[in-house]
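Lay summary. Proteins are chains of building blocks that fold into shapes, and those shapes determine what they do. In this project we predict the shape from the chain. Here is one chain we studied, written as its sequence of building blocks.
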Amino acid sequence: MNIVTIESISKSYGVKTLFENISFTINDHDKTGLIGVNGTGKSTLLKIIAGYETPDTGLIKIPSGMSIEYLSQNPVFDPDSTVLEQVFRGESPATHSVREYEVKTILTKLGINNFDEKIDTLSGGQKKRVALSRALISPCDLLILDEPTNHMDNNTIAWLETYLGKRKGALLMITHDRYFLDRVVNKTIELDGGKLYTYTGNYSAFIEKKLERQNLETAIERKRQNLYKKELNWIRTGAKARTTKQKARIQRFEELKDAKPNIDDSEIDISVAHSRLGKKIITFDNVSKSFGDKILIQNFSYVVLKNDRIGIIGDNGLGKSTLLNLIAGKLNMDCGTIDIGTTVNIAYFSQESEEMNINLRGIEYIKESAEYVTTADGTRISASQMMERFLFSKELQWTHISRLSGGERRRLYLLKVLMDAPNVLILDEPTNDFDIDTLKVLENYIDEFNGAVISVSHDRYFLDRTCNKIFSFEGCGKIAQYTGNYTDHIIHKKDVLNDNLKEGKSKGKSNSSQREKKKKIKFTYKEKIEYEKIDAEIEILENKLTKLEDEIQKYATDFTKLQELMANKDIVEEELFYKMERQEYLSGIEEQMKSANN
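And here is the predicted shape, written in a compact code that computers can read:
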């Protein structure tokens, strides 16, 4: 069933055209992800569909009776209301009474536990979760979400994935979380150069199909250029001959000359030179930090190595950003030391960015750091050229910061941070407000970065892509250290849990072994059949496990396939453990039977 039809809509702000004559439909089974470079008009498009803005041209058709619920990137709140009052704003008392349990459950899952707390006392991230709760509990045919995963911890994002995956009705959302897109959406639309492209499938399917589209466009452009050259030679045969040429062919030449498609192969290049880094980088020695009675970091020690790629994870409020601020000297520790080497030049990309003078133009803001910068290959380029490498066109460079989108401001801030040739990079939530293209290039930059990188992030894809160590904040000041990326950390935790469960079962069996010996001296009929088949069943499961492990090695770089294989491996391992325990138990009965007969 069709919910929304978008017909030939266009939108501009001043001289900047966001999109032109774009059309698509949303059906009741569509779970759609909207992606594109920051500043292309993604949030504006959502606002138009939700009815908060109007297009310059075109139509939005919504059948009678269809309802839309919209979560904006910056929701508006009543500061004097409580959490529950904000969620139920505009609802009748009867609705409030019937649905209060559901609302409290969702709020708890989103990390909001004090339902009577005033909105004005909440952090920005907590307020966004309250607004998300309201959107999730509101009955609607189309749910529109603008960056729902920003400022969420990994456990909360995993819960939201499951919730939206099971939710009935259409979904349209903007998110830069690639795992989230892979697991939730079945349709992807991309805003690129003012045009809209639609792809069936999730993020992985989009990557594959976009490459096919770009290859096709490149081939078409190559043919157009060859035809243009032939027509140009024909036109140039001479002024005398040209007077007798066919008017239609001359017109065709003009059309070919102007028909160049919008193929943008540019990408952000942040190949900034790095300053020399000595052997001594950062040493933590029994560092502790508390706020009042709340212990965030307790007796933390670690020596940062040159090639460390450390990902810091944990629930919100446990002290992840606090650790970064201790390194940066923005906070004082309660006890312990942080010793930073003399050659260390830290670039700190903070969560809030720095205070920008929005009256400055982009180029003026960058020139506050440097007029020129030296790249990794030794080339000296101007601030303007560097901005172009960050996809700031000449026109955009001279645009006032106040007119830039949130994502464009974050990209501008990242450029300024990297202008000083750092050799230690500290990133606090770098994936917030960045589009996927920027994230991919940042990940490539980290690959080539000749120094240590410490990142706080909730983006599981980013952590898998960039990290070789994980620091997990687990509460009460404890910071657990793991080797590997985020997925390795999750697998390790599952293995520990399975080992503990197995150990608990073994203890339970040993406590009851004496009773079992007296009580059980023969098989039941079902146990006899089970014992006869169990060796073959175990062999089948072991073969399955071996095959899965081979597949995991094969798809080690395909994160989506890897996740699926790891999930299957967990299921097979669990079944194998159960069968092996049953085999041990049944073998024990057989031994008892033999002893009794002897």
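What the prediction tells us: DSSP finds 20 helices and 20 strands in the chain.
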